[in-house]
Write a structure and sequence with these properties.
With 157 residues, this protein is an alpha/beta fold. The chain has six helices and six strands. The chain has one domain: Mannitol-specific EII, Chain A, CATH 3.40.930. Strand 2 and strand 3 form a beta hairpin.
Length: 157
């Protein structure tokens, strides 16, 4: 699954207002439900919070990938949040988070869920991807950055 398909412009929220991790989860879940027209806010929050209790998903400088599994979705779904101020996330490095890639998958779809997480990890190995994506001010340009770096990665494989 292409990340540009998982995070199209309508599933990218620029200017997150959240100040901490839990507020960010709620803001992203609300945005996801509004755009998808699915009333599954609590299921998303439960799945993401359950995973987060095991270990912070603030994985590297400025980046978090909150994720979880719930049967409230029929396929892997995602929403990207970009914060200009930074979010107190309890990240592994103790630094604020600016990019939050929230991913939820059905309980039975472990393979696709892991492929999405692996693909994100591959893209995030390029520090310029973070820099370019964090600098975007509208969802369409953010989506274009994801597509650009996916193409670069695909060309190198």
């Amino acid at each position: 699954m292409a990340l540009s398909d998982l995070f199209p412009p309508e599933f990218i929220k620029i200017g997150l207002e959240a100040e901490d991790k839990d507020e960010a989860f709620e803001e992203l879940a609300d945005a996801f439900c509004q755009v998808s027209r699915l009333d599954i806010r609590e299921e998303i929050l439960e799945a993401v919070r359950d995973r987060e209790r095991k270990m912070s998903t603030g994985i590297q400088k400025g980046i978090a990938i909150p994720h979880g599994k719930t049967n409230a979705v029929d396929r892997v779904r995602g929403i990207l949040g970009i914060s200009k101020r930074g979010i107190d996330y309890d990240a592994l490095d103790g630094q604020p988070v600016y990019l939050l890639f929230m991913v939820v998958a059905p309980q039975t779809d472990t393979e696709k869920h892991l492929r999405v997480l692996k693909r994100l990890a591959e893209l995030l190995q390029n520090p310029q991807f973070f820099t370019d994506l964090a600098a975007q001010n509208d969802p369409s340009s953010a989506s274009a950055v994801i597509k650009k770096y996916e193409n670069i990665l695909a060309a190198s494989e």
